[in-house]
Amino acid sequence: MPSLQNNVSKGILWSAVDVSLRQGSQFAVLIVMARILSPEDFGVMALLALFAGLANVFVDGGFGSALIQRQNVTRTDESTVFFFNLAMGFSALVALCVLAPYLARLFDKPILRPLTYAMAANVFIGAFGAIHTTLLTKELNLKLIARIGGIASAVSGALAIGLALEGFGPWSLALQVVAANAVSTLLLWHWHAWRPLWTFSFSSLRSYFRFGGYLLIVALADLLHTHLYSLLIGKFYQVREVGFYDRAQKTQSLPVNFIMLVINRVAFSAFSTLAEDRERLSRAFRKAQRLVLFVNTPLSILTIVLAEPIVLALFGEKWLPSAPLLQVLGIAGLLWPMHILNTNVLKAQGRSDLFFNIMLVKKSVAIGLTVWGSFYGIIAIAWAQVAASVFALAVNAYYSKIFLNYGVFRQLQDLLPSLTAGALAGAAAWLQSQHSGFSCYADLALGTFLAGLVYLLLARLLDVNTLTEFTGLFKKRSLQH
């Protein structure tokens, strides 16, 4: 199906542009702000991430993924989901406002109360644009998402830096989030033609809930696992330690999230299109897996071996306690794309029930490991994430083996060439940084260049097909054939 390949290739490229603009500009702003603000300022915002995230999950309700997965969607369906999003957004706003004073007392941080009000407003604003983003993703119209993301990131980033320079502390971070969401929502309504019908169908809502309801519970468990560290560290240690851990996690996840946001938007839609043809789905899944691992593996290994120069060069010496955490979390990041693609394949086949089962198992284990790690210190929490990631891969690949004959051992075989080349490239970068005597900036630049050169040479020898497939994405002919 050339049209599918054409759409997927274009989708990947425009998704890359969107994520580069949005994530890249946001990270550039955070680099500037990390040098202005304190670890405690970032720690305060990290404490709010769990509760704001929970509210956002309830607003979506899993219906966004349900709309993408279902092939025959009516305007009534779309309008029903839109009004459901608004109702849940308002409910989340009220719930967060009620919760605000209790959060401030729990962590002994009075500023959490007004900041929670700001995050509550942000959740409600986002509800107005959720359906537009879902429809654009389903259509693989990621060029428009890229344009909107770039503008929103530029406006909110400029605002955040200005506020930080004026001494607004964590407020500069909070208002950056609100501004980005508000600008994105306004532009979605301005540039996307979709408008709701004044109708609401409970039967439509029930039919989508059968798929989306499972995803809602899974998303809640995933969010609790992802942000549980902030609760535990904030309650039993210090808020500044939350800032250090959050900085390490965000830095480690930047390349992983970049890759997965690029691929994830396209992969789920493409996999859903191929859901009835398991042979083609299996081939598409394996190709996507190889491509993602080809890019993610060297980036994760570089994060591990160059953690200290990365932290020093980007954020400054006050953030140096983040470096050991960054090294450990980088190990977990090696496997993360494999988790996402395995679960995308399952969702694309409409098996949200099985997706629910495996996610509940692995997230329960991950939450237990995180709580266990909190008794032994912050670095133990990071190692708990590594253990959870290894366990999750075995669980995620279980149904891939059953449905597509692509289990954990075959997936690890596909990882091996990239891992071998990445490990040798990382070793070259580490040796260079240990014996150079240069500044952190020079170590980072030289290490990255050397590792990249070694990796590409070894990849050429070990896995020519993947390198060819990867470069083919960026050639014009790949968009036409």
TrEMBL record:
The chain crosses the membrane at residues 42-68, 80-103, 115-137, 144-165, 171-191, 211-234, 254-271, 291-315, 327-346, 367-395, 438-458. Belongs to the polysaccharide synthase family. This is Membrane protein involved in the export of O-antigen and teichoic acid. One of its GO terms (cellular component) is plasma membrane. It is a multi-pass membrane protein. Keywords: Cell membrane, Membrane, Transmembrane, Transmembrane helix. Pfam families: Polysacc_synt_3. Coiled coil: none annotated. Its main location: membrane. It is found in: Cell membrane. It comes from the Bacteria.
